[in-house]
Amino acid sequence: MNPKILVIGGLAAGPAAAAKAKRTNSEAEVTLFEQGEHVSYGICEIPYFIGGVTPNKSDIEPFSAQKLEQTRGFKVKTLHRVEKLDSTKRLVVVRDLWKDKLHEFKYTKLVLATGSSPRRLGIAGENARNLFFINKLDEAYALKKFIDEEQPKRAVVVGGGYIGLEMVDTLVSLGLKTTLVHRSAFPLSSLEDSARKFVLSQLTKNGVQFEPNQTVLQFVVDASGKISKVVTNRSSFETGLVIVCIGVAPNTELACHAKLRLGTHTGVLTDQHQKTSNDAIYAAGDCCELKNSVNNKWMYLPLATYAARQGVVAGMNAAGGRAAFKGAIRAVAVKVFDGEVAHVGLSLKEALESGFSADTDEISSSTKISFYPGSSPLSIRLIFEKRSHRLLGANVWGGSGSVARANVLSSAIQHKLTLEQVAELDLIYAPQFSPLWDPILTAAKQARKQ
Amino acid sequence: MNPKILVIGGLAAGPAAAAKAKRTNSEAEVTLFEQGEHVSYGICEIPYFIGGVTPNKSDIEPFSAQKLEQTRGFKVKTLHRVEKLDSTKRLVVVRDLWKDKLHEFKYTKLVLATGSSPRRLGIAGENARNLFFINKLDEAYALKKFIDEEQPKRAVVVGGGYIGLEMVDTLVSLGLKTTLVHRSAFPLSSLEDSARKFVLSQLTKNGVQFEPNQTVLQFVVDASGKISKVVTNRSSFETGLVIVCIGVAPNTELACHAKLRLGTHTGVLTDQHQKTSNDAIYAAGDCCELKNSVNNKWMYLPLATYAARQGVVAGMNAAGGRAAFKGAIRAVAVKVFDGEVAHVGLSLKEALESGFSADTDEISSSTKISFYPGSSPLSIRLIFEKRSHRLLGANVWGGSGSVARANVLSSAIQHKLTLEQVAELDLIYAPQFSPLWDPILTAAKQARKQ
Question: Which domains does chain A have, with CATH numbers?
């Protein structure tokens, strides 16, 4: 009998797993369940849809369920919520939300790609109709509709992480007076201080009211059911719109049904083959933790690229192939108005906590030769091991071209290069592209003298 | 007695060598001779000075002789031409061009950084006052003065290499109707055909008349001493200005005095420590050949970054230190109007000639996610070894962001990564910076299927 592969979750990891499973074994019966209406959409692109950078839904919803079925050859069941996982009988119980009926499906192998849910503040008013979480397409469409129709003048964004900053940028571009409430002194808690100060300066320069060291205590909801005021431990802010971006947590309800091993970040743990503690169950994407390949520790880093890579690996292995996801070093970046900031590898704090005898050093340079039009300041802070000079992490920030350099450093960290090796990288020079010594080389040359 | 270190040549490698020698051994008496008036200027920046991108001479002449002496601690003798090198007696004969007097200087160690000279066509009219070579600061100042004062309407550039293309871009930006005469069918002979076609399309789109497969046979010089017509084997072109950029050749006259070993490209050969075949003589920069670290063959690639790196190594070793220049993989790029094109590592032809069983594969993608403002097409062609999948070379071309990607590939080639390893690089994704799969990953993933 042909193997039955079930995939639960239709956003990034799920469709990647289902497609790869079908490609690996065309005899396999592959079925994907998605509780929502949409599949395989671009969650990362949502801020740009809301901001009107692209007005086309087709840009963020490139695949309908039908198109996935036709081009990838697996079955897609949207509006189907998997409510129970019985790993002993190898079956799932699925509610068809359209007909409100329960069905059982047996599996040979199962891929959990159940994703994540936004963390909530857990205070009254969080369900007000002018409060949004940016984690689902329906939520994005609702937010866009709300802004178009009700034209709020002010917004409060809670949480200065990557998504929070993208939303702040978007709201300012739409003309809203925007306040960013953040729990610590500077945005982006995992960056080094000087990079965080740069981000803060980008916010201030562009008229954003940054409110540091604050926790939201209360939402004041008016008669129309909308939050009119956000009260924190230090102040209060009138508003017409609230966006909460305080991170996401892995969805592990089904994983718990099967008693899968979870990690300290509450995500599913897998081996390199994306296999969970149950031999018949694989997991991929935001519901999983992943191995940081610099310090070999588990981390929780729900990014689309990792989800897709894990999905491919899970799908291939579920269908009898053999693939491995070797972990991630962390490579993230955000554009804050005209500034870019990127973080690759470990922070100094993480490096020290992981037992590295780590040090750090910073340089200031420019994206191109300084007289060239469009040249702008660029800074690099390297984190490295003192004795071996192995590069462990880097922050890069400044004008356009900062993130591209972080990719060179990311590759260097991934392949365990030393500062000496980074200083000898054969990088291109021409005035239009960099100073004579690319800032990467300058940073490595300076740091190795320490 | 303190060691006497003499450095011959004051552009890129020479000052780097002299400065490093002094830093390595502060007791050493270090003297640099330069036959021209200027030292340590930015030869690569000349097209942008001529084009008015920067009108400031200080941007291309950051160091006067005096400033070098004061900040770096070595003696600088400009307008001093070394006319004889006696390696047996360890002395050089130097003409003070100012006073027209000869002096002898003895050395403990000598660093040759005599640079290169433009190749000439070797036909009559090549000394006409409206014909320029772009290789010296004085020549650049003369060209700028000529353009400002005589306002030519038309220009012919001979040679479609990197400098030729930069000059074409510059002349068009100044409003000159520009013809590019090139010996083969497409510009940039070392690139793969599809990249060369892209460059040609950039030229055509911007109104440049590209004349392929042509050799200049004759310059018609008018009564005022200016070339009025350029005659090739296929056509002739009226002009008010001629720029000849058909490459440069190493200056090795002094090397020949000392009977130093030269290579097949007529440059000085050195070991990793930049030592020549004479134990007391080091060489660095455009007068040298350098080792291509991908195929371990000698090549001639006179670029400022390599010159400076070799200079540092030569200077350190001449002063008793121990440093090595481990060769180059070749990393070059040029901006042609709004297009970028980069070449890193070997071409397919070089790879095959070096004995690699090589193959090549190409992808088309975009610099950012396609809907994002400023996103433009980007193509990558990879050259790799068939069996091992080791990456050997790459061409990257398209809009802004192409060259930055070439730097990631350059680093991958330098560290001998395979296509599988490149496909697993942890590169940043966000819509502002790349498609979900960075074109680098897409290229490697597609090529490994071959």
Answer: 4-36+58-115+248-318 (3.50.50.60), 120-244 (3.50.50.60), 341-448 (3.30.390.30)
